[in-house]
Recover the amino acids of this structure.
């Protein structure tokens, strides 16, 4: 769309709905990055369902207004965790979204009131459960855009079923990898625009790593999925050959004690350090020479791009779905088979033992990270949102949601009938399609 | 909140500083603050202290692009402790500064070869309340702890002496904190400015044992062993070591080396149940 055309539509009001804007995590980080970018041209707000801290850690300067719906700061007089409605289960939030237990009748009411009255042109949901709020509670009018920061293929089947029933009522669904977008396109989501737009990662404005520090850096929540146990075991292999190299793992989480015990058991307490959570994280990359990602599952991989920005080559497992779409093996990093300790150790040693290759790959990484410039990613969102708002209209919006509701009900019926496996119900699918066509002419 | 209307936005919270450390121990602090142009401005560093307050003022120089910069050179003396950073504009009340992107890579694996007189270390860090503070140490001489090796019932410590030279009869003391008992003394192997010492846990009873190096034996100074030469403001949670059980002069105990809140090295010893086979 040309600049002139966009001008006629002018500023959009864009509202992000997020579980919590006050914590640390990939979704929070990328939401603020995008919100701040879009705020250069549009009116943008971030609505946080929960507030559990005084300030949003990842957007402390308040370039984008943040508001919250439920106050969970225990020490404040405004604490609402003891509200009786907070003890009653949610009826709106996707039942099988992993965060379901945090949601309640109270969040149903608060999110519902926000979605019923928002004057936004576009409402963006940032996780499956919130996307189901969008389709169930938003007033007619705003474009409803669901973001998928995880991946369809790794959702539990029961959540997949819920999403198949509700996502037809979205206007657009945006994934962070092309692989995940393909998975969603295989579902039947008529009239729903499904696209992949990667997360943006801003330039921290820091000098690139000089690559002389003999440190491998990893960063992420200390959760099972990140497989830091694998990384630590792989690093034992590194230390055997190169005891002059050490590993730092930044982040906090439930696995901390277990990982610490592993470090002690392997006698690596002079070589592997659990650094704890750090914010901002960006300056830490510059202290290293290689970044490592050992995850068994990485929907996108913000830290990969952050490390590349700092000029570090990245050694990552080739897990679903992010690393393979970001890293070009041999150019700006290496991919090793998912879960393979030996291959991880060997790939790290390969870079540790070759200063020239490491430096060249670090330079390439920095160069290739520009694909994720906030300006580039923001422009893609801007174009997409502008088109979606332009083709909207109360009529279309209403008709699309009515059709979406029917498609969803058909899915639900199919689930009840027991034909829930993907690809089985082709004939039934056509049956459903016919039913919907009829409904649209009513 | 009695209605469903969302609460007001969170306000922005204050000026933000970007710190860069150099390998000599100096720190430069930069703020993007166009509104401070042509105003009298300085940074105020104020030490956390129960009694007398220490204050140091650093002039802010105007840079192009609405930025201000203060230098905290290694020569400026800061007493050991935690210093909060404030911005002062004209005669206004000082306001606390928030931490930005701190570039501390020069502190990592710092060599600090030439230490004349006192070793000075400054590590900018985000304080508990989220504001910028600077941890400072000035020590001379200083015994820097390196790798620790936990063996069968003992701790072997490698370290480096800075700001002094080893004499003939160097040794290492383990002092039971809060006790007048004579310390446990162990011998020290010296090679240049590096040293190695082994502390047998069987000689330690329950309590906290502080490690001190005596580079020239009983005649010279006692130098607290600590770990200062990197970018980690609080070592305690990051540098963790295995605990070991040993039955010694005080019965069965469990011992574990750790870094104190001041980043000094101590050994925590606890009485424990006799192990049954």
């Amino acid at each position: 769309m040309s600049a002139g055309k966009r001008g006629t539509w002018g500023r959009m009001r864009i509202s992000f709905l997020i579980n919590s804007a006050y914590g640390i995590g990939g979704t929070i980080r990328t939401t603020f990055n995008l919100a701040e970018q879009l705020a250069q041209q549009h009116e943008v707000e971030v609505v946080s369902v929960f507030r559990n801290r005084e300030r949003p850690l990842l957007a402390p300067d308040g370039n984008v207004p943040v508001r919250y719906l439920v106050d969970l700061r225990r020490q404040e007089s405004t604490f609402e965790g003891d509200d009786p409605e907070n003890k009653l289960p949610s009826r709106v939030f996707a039942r099988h979204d992993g965060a379901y237990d945090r949601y309640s009748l109270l969040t149903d009411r608060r999110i519902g009131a926000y979605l019923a009255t928002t004057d936004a042109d576009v409402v963006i949901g940032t996780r499956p459960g919130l996307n189901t709020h969008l389709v169930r509670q938003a007033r007619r009018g705003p474009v409803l855009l669901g973001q998928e920061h995880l991946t369809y293929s790794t959702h539990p089947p029961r959540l997949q079923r819920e999403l198949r029933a509700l996502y037809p009522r979205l206007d657009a669904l945006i994934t962070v990898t092309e692989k995940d977008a393909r998975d969603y396109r295989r579902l039947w989501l008529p009239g729903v625009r499904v696209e992949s737009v990667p997360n943006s990662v801003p330039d921290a404005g820091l000098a690139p790593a000089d690559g002389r520090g003999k440190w491998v850096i990893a960063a992420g929540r200390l959760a099972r999925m990140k497989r830091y146990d694998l990384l630590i075991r792989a690093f034992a292999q590194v230390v055997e050959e190169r005891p002059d190299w050490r590993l730092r793992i930044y982040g906090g989480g439930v696995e901390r004690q277990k990982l610490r015990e592993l470090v002690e058991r392997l006698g690596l307490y002079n070589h592997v350090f659990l650094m704890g959570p750090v914010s901002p994280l960006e300056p830490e990359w510059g202290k290293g020479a290689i970044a490592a990602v050992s995850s068994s599952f990485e929907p996108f991989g913000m830290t990969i791009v952050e490390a590349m920005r700092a000029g570090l080559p990245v050694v990552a497992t080739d897990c679903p779905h992010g690393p393979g779409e970001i890293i070009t093996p041999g150019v700006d990093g290496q991919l090793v088979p998912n879960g393979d300790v030996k291959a991880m150790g060997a790939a790290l040693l390969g870079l540790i033992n070759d200063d020239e290759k490491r430096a060249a790959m670090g330079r390439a990484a920095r160069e290739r990270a520009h694909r994720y410039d906030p300006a580039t990613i923001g422009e893609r969102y801007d174009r997409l949102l502008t088109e979606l708002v332009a083709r909207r209209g109360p009529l279309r919006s209403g008709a699309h949601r009515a059709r979406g509701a029917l498609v969803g009900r058909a899915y639900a019926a199919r689930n009840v009938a027991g034909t829930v496996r993907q690809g089985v119900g082709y004939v039934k699918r056509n049956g459903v399609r016919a039913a919907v066509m009829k409904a649209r002419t009513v | 909140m009695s209605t469903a209307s969302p609460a007001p936005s969170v306000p922005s919270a204050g000026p933000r500083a970007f710190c860069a450390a150099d390998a000599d121990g100096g720190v430069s602090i930069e703020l993007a603050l166009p509104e401070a142009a042509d105003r009298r401005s300085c940074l105020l560093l104020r030490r956390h202290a129960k009694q007398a307050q220490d204050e140091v003022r650093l002039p802010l120089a105007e840079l192009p692009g609405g930025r201000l910069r203060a230098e905290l050179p290694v020569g400026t003396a800061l007493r050991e402790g935690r210093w909060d950073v404030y911005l002062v504009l004209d005669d206004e009340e000082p306001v606390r500064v928030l931490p930005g992107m701190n570039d501390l890579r020069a502190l990592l694996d710092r060599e600090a070869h030439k230490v004349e007189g006192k070793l000075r270390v400054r590590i900018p860090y985000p304080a508990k309340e989220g504001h910028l503070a600077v941890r400072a140490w000035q020590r001379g001489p200083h015994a820097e702890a390196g790798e620790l090796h936990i063996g069968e019932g003992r701790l072997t410590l490698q370290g480096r002496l800075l700001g002094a030279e080893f004499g003939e009869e160097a040794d290492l003391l383990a002092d039971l904190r809060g006790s007048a008992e004579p310390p446990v003394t162990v011998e020290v192997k010296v090679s240049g400015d590096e040293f190695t010492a082994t502390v047998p846990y069987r000689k330690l009873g329950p309590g906290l044992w502080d490690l001190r190096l005596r580079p020239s034996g009983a005649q010279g100074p006692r130098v607290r062993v600590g770990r200062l030469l990197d970018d980690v403001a609080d070592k305690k949670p990051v540098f963790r070591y295995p605990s070991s059980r040993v039955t010694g002069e005080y019965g069965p105990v469990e011992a574990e080396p750790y870094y104190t809140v001041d980043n000094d090295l101590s050994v925590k010893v606890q009485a424990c149940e006799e192990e049954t086979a």
Notes: DSSP finds 16 helices and 13 strands in chain A. The two ends of chain A are 34 Å apart (CA to CA). Chain A touches chain B at residues 47, 51, 54-56, 60-62, 65-69, 71, 78, 80, 109-110, 112-114, 204-207, 209, 213, 215, 260, 264, 269-270, 273-276, 279-280, 282-283, 286-287 (CB under 8 Å). The longest helix of chain A spans residues 394-416.
